[in-house]
Fold Armadillo repeat-containing protein 4-like.
Amino acid sequence: VLVKLLENADEDETVLKNVVGALCECLKFKHNRDVLRRVDGIPHLVNLLNYTFPPLLENVPMVLRECAEDESSMRIIEQLDGVRLIWSLLKNESPKVQANAAWSLVPCIRYATDSGEMVRCFVGGLELIVNLLKSSDVHVLACVCAAIAEIAKDIENLAVITDHGVVPMLVNLVNTQDVELREHLASAIAYCCAWGSNCKTFGRLGAITPLVAYMADSNAKVHRTTALALFHLSKNAFNCITMHESGVVPFLLKAIATTDWDLQEAAAGCLANIRKLALEAETCHLIRPQDESSSEEDD
């Protein structure tokens, strides 16, 4: 019944907005996604991305986000070039439209057939999404960081967004007190460490100490992504020193005792890297005096 309302080209845009909002809630259940696909509702939803009514454009990406969680539905969205249309909404003047479009891109990128190649085909797309990190809207920033975390999983795309200055832009956001932004910012930092000297640059620009403070947050999701970020950052020796001096060890020990396996693994990995550096430093300290004495004997 709801899809039939979408088929009417003359339908009032306010009605369409509410129909799409209702569908978004319905599609949180998998069996409803199957029904939507069977009655050919996805093409109608993708077509709505061409409209200009802001309240409608706020809802359409969110319903397509639910569709993207289903593999068969995601293939239809790809065939209709729906991801490109969602990406184009990042240019919209409405912060709400921008945020919902970026949030919708997360599963679209994750479940695309070849997400890396697809994203690279969007001319100027990567520069566009990186520039949204200059937004003054915290919700937009959080959603963009979530999308960047997915984009950065492809090494070629990570190289491109690095060239567009994603690292210093992410560092500029680390002192936020917003829980949602902290969660997704930490995730973006974690996956952006994999290219070139990004890991070292994050430390040099001062991202470590604020991230360690995130571990004192009461939100479990923030702990999970922050521990992951700290693990990736700990692959650089100087970052390990900064973490240790910032008092990260008690937080990591506490994290290892949780029942969250992802958090446990990331925290343990970070601790292992810190301890490995400490052992190497102790070994060097013990060996150096012997080396000096032996060289004196040789003289």
About this structure: The first helix runs from residue 2 to 7.
